[in-house]
Amino acid sequence: MPGTNQKLLVHYSRFTILTAKWWSWWDSSLVELRDAKGRTGRRADNHQPGDKIHSRSNVGAMVCPLLLLLIPLPFVHVLGQSGCLLSPPTLTAYTEEGDVTLGLIVPINTISSRKVLSFKDRPAPPQCDLFRRDQYKSILALLFAIEEVNKDPHLLPNVTLGFHMLDSCFAEDFSLRATLQAVTGNNKNAPNFKLAPRICPTWPRLCNTCPSVSQVSYAASFPSLSNKVEFPSFLRTIVSTEGQPYALVELCKTFGWNWIGVLISSTDYAVQGGVVFKREAAKNGICIAYYETIALETISQRIPSVMKNVRGITATAIVLFCSPAEVSAILTEALQQNVTGKIWIGVEAWFTSPVFFKPEFWNLLNGTIGISRSRRILPYFPQFLQDFYPSRYPRMLNIQQFWERTFNCKWTSANGTLGPNIKACTGSERLITDDITEYNDPVSQYVYMAHSALFALANALHDLMACRPGEGPFSGGSCANKQDFQQWQLLYYLKKVQFVNTAGELVAFDVNGDSYGYFDILNWRLDGNLTSRYVNVGTFNNYMNSEQKLSINASFILWADGLAKVPSSVCTESCPPGYRKAPRTGQPLCCFDCVLCPDGMISTQINSIDCTSCPLDQWPNSERNQCLPKVIEYLSYQEPLGLVLALVSMTFSLMTVAVLCVFLRFRDTVIVKANNRSLSYVLLLSLTFCFLSSLTFIGSPTAVTCSLRQSIFGVIFSLCVSCILAKTIIVVMAFKATRPDSRLRQWVSSKTTVLVVSLSTMVQVILIALWLIISPPFLEHTVQSITGKVLLECNEGSSPMFYSVLGYLGFLAFLSFVVAFLARSLPDNFNEAKYITFSMLIFLSVWVSFIPAHLSTKGKYIVATEAIDEYQRIFSLIKVQF
């Protein structure tokens, strides 16, 4: 590239990436405690969107995208306003030139000690000299990403990325000075920043040092960083911890745990998470059995009483929003108090911590389930490690210390000597053979996140430079000036960036600058040979809809004692179908009694709040969880009562036919003739049909039988009573017309008999005809008269017409009784009137008793009552006549 163009390119393209790591989560609690005592610091800056940031000499940072990995530490020293100027911390840096130079603030070393000084002592500059080898994997991932971008001919063609690396030393003061140096391009105090003498606020304030500079973090997960009012230009590829409480609630719902204990620390991280968990748990019907806050400073005094409470309450599942140190104290006390049978639910802050390395906790923690940010193996990173040698980056920060720690060797000193029994480092050792397992470990999340963060920035630059005039996103379709673009323009592209990384996953940011990542659901278990491991059993994505947020394979989970059955954590066991929940007074909604559904009602679901009524034609089963068709009840031939009535009907009808046959056989005898032969034939025949008509009351009723049963019997029995009445009238008239000139003699004939029988029967026929026309009987399914049964019966239709038919039969019987009573004084040879009187008296007694019996009887027995009543009426005639 020609020199002029190269200078111009370097001029517009020098920008900075800042990185630092949130190292000690539990240290943040100290920061927050101190911060709560006095948060007096103020931030002052004059950078506005659209301003350019000019650097030293001819190298100006026109854009300052920052890749921030922020660190909370207990305190920092700041510049005062007295005449004393403290010595600034010494920053170590390493630069690789390129067309585009990135500034990297990375955590490599840590401060060896901070002495407690009086106000009279002059603080010495802090010494950042303790090397942290475990953080080097993130640095190697950034170098790997830069090499990949430089090798890609399509991402940033004709542009080589360089970098300017600074050590944040896991300290806020180092990180802040490194940030300002990266932004301004020099190692002097920034003229636009003035800090009052105070304790520096906690680490999120560092993100607001340069509010107009694009900042991308791969490890700062504090939820408050999603506040775009306070942190307008902050983005991150790591998933915010804000989703953890939602994941925990979904876990409890999936396993049916609605009685949960919660132990939280006093840090902002835990307090905010606990508040969200309580809110979401209440929305989803999960009750909190106890909610205890434990501060690390007072844990030794509080933990015995807390664990006593934990042991005494029936909640099995316990959510721990705590740091590893607090979890260790909790488990130690649990061992002392023999608290067993609990399900520990972990959050990321401690779930993958060294707590699980302590064998004394293994029995307690076996089967523990928790959440952790998704871990992915970075493709091609193993090959990068295999080809990585110190000679490739000889001036890399702490490269020699890293090599010595990794391979347990020493570099040859200047005089070429080594101590005894010390292996010399050659620089040709290969990470792939000695350390590949650690550096390609999927549990190491920051490697993957750092790689994605750098590629997000590279893709934003690609989109900015690929803009065509007239198609741009700015005013009038304009594009950013590729040689002099402003920071808010790059920030626009960074917020809109969307690409698929080398692992095949989408990298993008939401409106809060958070990435669309997800959490893994892990199960920690002990294998048979007492080796422990994490098993990924599911994922949680808070950006999916409610039905798809949690995906879990419960069959992969092994709980305590190697059991596959999900343990229970409920205040009251679920009410089975057939019962309803009855809340207990003064207790949470998850504590209730199970009450059996009342008659006629069911519940079909577990933990039903109310029971529902069955349809009218159905009835609950014995478990009260299903409605079954009601038993249809009627007087059937199969049951004893129906069979007996049918046999009685058939037997006496045959006996009546037999008597009729005798009368026909001896029809010319004096006895038969004297008994009014023709009338006796009619009477016997009608009595036979009366017996047979009672069969219509037995068996399943139909519309036809309902219409015929009362009408046929009414006509036939009226004919019977009419025959008795006619016979009695003829006898009385015959004895009253003894004189030759008596007018009654002309009525003593068969014509009179026919006339009386016909007229008496015709009146009943007319009444029945009117009944069938006006409101005939009909078939009815009665569902409420008998519990659990549907009564199949005949409704008589018009009750007045029904009782009119019965009343007319009573009238005929009463008339026959009166006539027969008047004939009681006849000679003994003609004492038939006495029997008729007695017969009618019995008939009237049965008739009167039938009405209350008919009204008081229900179900199939009302039909039996009607049939028996008919038999009694018929027998009252047979006993005295034949």
From TrEMBL:
<feature type="transmembrane region" description="Helical">
    <location>
        <begin position="801"/>
        <end position="823"/>
    </location>
</feature>
<feature type="transmembrane region" description="Helical">
    <location>
        <begin position="678"/>
        <end position="699"/>
    </location>
</feature>
<keyword id="KW-0472">Membrane</keyword>
<keyword id="KW-0807">Transducer</keyword>
<keyword id="KW-0297">G-protein coupled receptor</keyword>
<dbReference type="Pfam" id="PF07562">
    <property type="entry name" value="NCD3G"/>
</dbReference>
<keyword id="KW-1133">Transmembrane helix</keyword>
<dbReference type="Pfam" id="PF00003">
    <property type="entry name" value="7tm_3"/>
</dbReference>
<keyword id="KW-0732">Signal</keyword>
<feature type="transmembrane region" description="Helical">
    <location>
        <begin position="754"/>
        <end position="774"/>
    </location>
</feature>
<dbReference type="InterPro" id="IPR000337">
    <property type="entry name" value="GPCR_3"/>
</dbReference>
<keyword id="KW-0325">Glycoprotein</keyword>
<protein>
    <submittedName>
        <fullName>Extracellular calcium-sensing receptor</fullName>
    </submittedName>
</protein>
<dbReference type="GO" id="GO:0004930">
    <property type="term" value="F:G protein-coupled receptor activity"/>
</dbReference>
<comment type="similarity">
    <text>Belongs to the G-protein coupled receptor 3 family.</text>
</comment>
<dbReference type="InterPro" id="IPR038550">
    <property type="entry name" value="GPCR_3_9-Cys_sf"/>
</dbReference>
<feature type="domain" description="G-protein coupled receptors family 3 profile">
    <location>
        <begin position="641"/>
        <end position="882"/>
    </location>
</feature>
<feature type="transmembrane region" description="Helical">
    <location>
        <begin position="711"/>
        <end position="733"/>
    </location>
</feature>
<dbReference type="Pfam" id="PF01094">
    <property type="entry name" value="ANF_receptor"/>
</dbReference>
<keyword id="KW-1003">Cell membrane</keyword>
<dbReference type="InterPro" id="IPR017979">
    <property type="entry name" value="GPCR_3_CS"/>
</dbReference>
<feature type="transmembrane region" description="Helical">
    <location>
        <begin position="835"/>
        <end position="855"/>
    </location>
</feature>
<dbReference type="InterPro" id="IPR011500">
    <property type="entry name" value="GPCR_3_9-Cys_dom"/>
</dbReference>
<dbReference type="InterPro" id="IPR028082">
    <property type="entry name" value="Peripla_BP_I"/>
</dbReference>
<keyword id="KW-0675">Receptor</keyword>
<feature type="transmembrane region" description="Helical">
    <location>
        <begin position="641"/>
        <end position="666"/>
    </location>
</feature>
<dbReference type="InterPro" id="IPR017978">
    <property type="entry name" value="GPCR_3_C"/>
</dbReference>
<dbReference type="GO" id="GO:0005886">
    <property type="term" value="C:plasma membrane"/>
</dbReference>
<keyword id="KW-0812">Transmembrane</keyword>
<dbReference type="InterPro" id="IPR001828">
    <property type="entry name" value="ANF_lig-bd_rcpt"/>
</dbReference>
<dbReference type="InterPro" id="IPR000068">
    <property type="entry name" value="GPCR_3_Ca_sens_rcpt-rel"/>
</dbReference>
<dbReference type="InterPro" id="IPR004073">
    <property type="entry name" value="GPCR_3_vmron_rcpt_2"/>
</dbReference>
